[in-house]
Design a protein that fits this description.
This protein is of the alpha+beta class. Helix content is about 45%, strand content about 25%. β4 and β5 form a beta hairpin.
Length: about 200
């Protein structure tokens, strides 16, 4: 695989001859810091949330001492399930950030553009990501395909003071490079525009 640095970006050519524009959305240091925060959250969250639920359970029990305790059992069960699910997701995200770190990548393939969110897919989702969600990112499905005929170029946009590069594809848009600095986002949009002109 060939690599050519272009400031914060580099070009890579895979074994099939497809050219990719690659950049570090989240660096390795940032990935490790975020993973550390997630580990702390996964450790402290069970203790904090369990104590709040126990206090609420005691309050209910004091108001109705002779009544059934089904509410307390329900709250404890629901809280335990939520704590376990949150801890598992946090640990999976932390693991992927540290041990499966991947850069963002935009690849030009025959008839389509393929955007791979890499590690940033673990921290984005919802509207504007082209269907990419945390659940897809957790299982390694961080790619979004855009047919070449639908691609209308790239632009630097912002939403709620967060700037990003929008890959416009008709009614659909995909937000990329949101972890880059504004100047780098402009460079990315320009690089994509140059790519678009190459037939």
């Amino acid at each position: 695989m060939q690599s050519q640095p272009l400031g914060p970006f580099r070009n890579e050519v895979d074994a099939e001859g497809n050219i990719s524009l690659v950049w570090e959305g989240i660096g390795r240091l940032e990935s490790r810091l975020i993973a550390l925060l997630l580990l702390l959250a996964a450790t402290l969250w069970p203790w904090l949330s369990h104590s709040v639920t126990l206090d609420f359970w005691r309050l209910l029990h004091e108001k109705n001492r002779g009544g059934p305790d089904w509410m307390g059992l329900f709250l404890t069960g629901a809280e335990s399930a939520f704590i376990v699910a949150f801890a598992i997701v946090a640990l999976l995200v932390a693991y992927r950030l540290v041990f499966d770190h991947k850069p963002e990548r935009l690849t030009r393939k025959p008839g389509k553009w393929v955007y791979d969110a890499g590690s940033t897919g673990l921290m984005q989702g919802g509207r504007g990501t082209g269907g990419l969600s945390l659940w897809r990112a957790l299982v390694g499905r961080t790619e979004v395909e855009i047919p070449m005929e639908e691609f209308n170029g790239a632009s630097v946009d912002s939403y709620r003071r967060i700037t990003f590069v929008t890959l416009n594809a008709g009614k659909r848009s995909v937000r990329v490079g949101r972890w880059l600095r504004h100047k780098e986002q402009q460079q990315l949009a320009q690089a994509i525009a140059k790519w678009q002109q190459v037939k």
